[in-house]
């Protein structure tokens, strides 16, 4: 069957990017939708945090099963099932009004979202040449910014009319994405860059659990996502409470911030290759230190200009770190078990995503609606992430990749 034609690879990547963008639109939009939801359902910060966190319980539970299935039955099937589950959850979220039902639906959405990163990474591993993998992975992850832009422009416009309309509109976009995945994902079971996929069966799954780097990256992404999802969850409420922003002002500010998410993601692979000469670890350590400092200054300043400046800086730096850590497995981990490995690594992300809104929501409530302590806690979490990154072991070999220990 040979290699995929370049034009097919382009459509394949575009299909993944659209699906990824919509999942990030979903993750970002809840932070804005929670404002009218709090009013309609009379929720406090702790209840809002719990509602946002339910998504990550489902995400965490399905991480490893979806990764294992991506290795065994193929990423296309996993991706279609995942997107179908999200579509159903999104439609129903717009219909219900009870807090318990909304929490159950967000849990279901999380179950669906779990299959997106594992199956997408598996597709990249199987269909993209080794030298291009990190760039393509960073390109896909840069759609976090596109998803943010969609959330804070299209999503916010619909939320201004009714938060329910926003979720109906999102459901339509998910349906388009499912159609693209069905038509543009490769059908053959051959691995275009290295033989038959069934060779993967010869690599025991126990290999993944013996790899220390998998668990180091798991921990690093856990602490990093406490920062990422903490500030994504509470930025709209922060600017409404501290600076009196309305939804329009919030949407404009966070749309610019979303653009910087993509810039941070896209620049990471370029910076690693051109400036840091392939030293991923040094780049990640410098970026996470900048992120920590910016987050703490953001929490302590009363100046709107300084606040927005620091927000932009920790957006750039945190997303650069995220993409670097999430792309590292293409260098550190065997292709045959990358789906299962990414599942474990991304489980750290989802646990961090679950803990963050809940912990920060509790801190905000405990300190009488003061957001400063919550954002300082996020900055300290970034510092811990830096210490964990030091534990990642990289052993360069002649082809520019790393040994699988």
From TrEMBL:
Pfam family, one: MFS_1
Domain Major facilitator superfamily (MFS) profile: 12-397
Keywords: Membrane, Transmembrane, Transmembrane helix, Transport
InterPro entries in the cross-refs: MFS, MFS_dom, MFS_Na/Anion_cotransporter, MFS_trans_sf
TM segment ranges: 12-37, 49-68, 80-105, 139-159, 165-185, 214-232, 252-271, 283-301, 307-328, 340-365, 371-392
GO molecular function: transmembrane transporter activity
Keyword S-adenosyl-L-methionine among record annotations: no
Subcellular location: Cell membrane
GO terms under cellular component: plasma membrane
Main localisation: membrane
Topology class, membrane: Multi-pass membrane protein
Gene3D superfamilies assigned: MFS general substrate transporter like domains
Protein name in UniProt: MFS transporter
Source species of the chain: Oceanobacillus arenosus
């Amino acid at each position: 069957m040979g290699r995929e034609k370049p034009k097919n690879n382009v459509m394949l990547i575009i299909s993944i990017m659209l699906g990824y963008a919509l999942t990030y639109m979903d993750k970002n939009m809840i932070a804005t939708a929670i404002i009218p939801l709090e009013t309609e359902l009379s929720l406090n910060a702790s209840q809002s945090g719990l509602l946002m966190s339910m998504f990550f319980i489902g995400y965490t539970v399905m991480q490893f099963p979806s990764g294992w299935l991506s290795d065994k039955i193929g990423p296309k099937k996993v991706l279609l099932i995942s997107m179908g589950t999200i579509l159903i959850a999104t439609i129903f979220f717009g219909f219900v009004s009870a807090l318990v039902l909304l929490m159950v639906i967000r849990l279901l959405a999380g179950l669906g979202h779990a299959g997106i990163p594992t199956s997408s990474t598996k597709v990249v591993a199987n269909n993209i040449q080794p030298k291009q993998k990190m760039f393509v992975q960073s390109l896909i992850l840069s759609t976090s910014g596109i998803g943010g832009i969609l959330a804070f422009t299209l999503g916010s416009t619909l939320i201004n009319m009714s938060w329910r309309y926003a979720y109906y509109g999102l459901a339509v976009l998910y349906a388009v994405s499912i159609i693209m995945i069905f038509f543009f994902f490769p059908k053959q079971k051959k691995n275009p860059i290295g033989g038959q996929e069934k060779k993967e069966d010869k690599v025991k799954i126990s290999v993944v659990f013996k790899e220390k780097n998998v668990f180091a990256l798991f921990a690093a992404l856990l602490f990093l996502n406490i920062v990422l999802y903490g500030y994504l969850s509470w930025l709209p409420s922060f600017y409404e409470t501290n600076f009196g922003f309305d939804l329009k002002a919030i949407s404009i500010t966070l749309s610019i911030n979303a653009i910087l998410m993509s810039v941070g993601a896209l620049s990471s692979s370029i910076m690693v290759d051109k400036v840091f000469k392939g030293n991923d670890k040094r780049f990640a350590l410098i970026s996470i230190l900048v992120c920590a400092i910016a987050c703490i200054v953001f929490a302590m300043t009363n100046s709107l200009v300084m606040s927005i400046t620091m927000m932009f800086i920790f957006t750039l730096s945190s997303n650069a770190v995220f993409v670097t850590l999430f792309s590292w497995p293409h260098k550190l981990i065997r292709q045959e078990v990358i789906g299962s490995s990414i599942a474990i690594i991304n489980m750290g992300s989802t646990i961090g995503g679950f803990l963050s809104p809940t912990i920060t929501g509790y801190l905000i409530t405990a300190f009488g609606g003061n957001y400063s302590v919550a954002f300082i806690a996020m900055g300290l979490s970034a510092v811990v992430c830096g210490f964990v990154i030091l534990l990642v072991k990289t052993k360069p070999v002649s082809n520019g990749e790393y040994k699988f220990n």
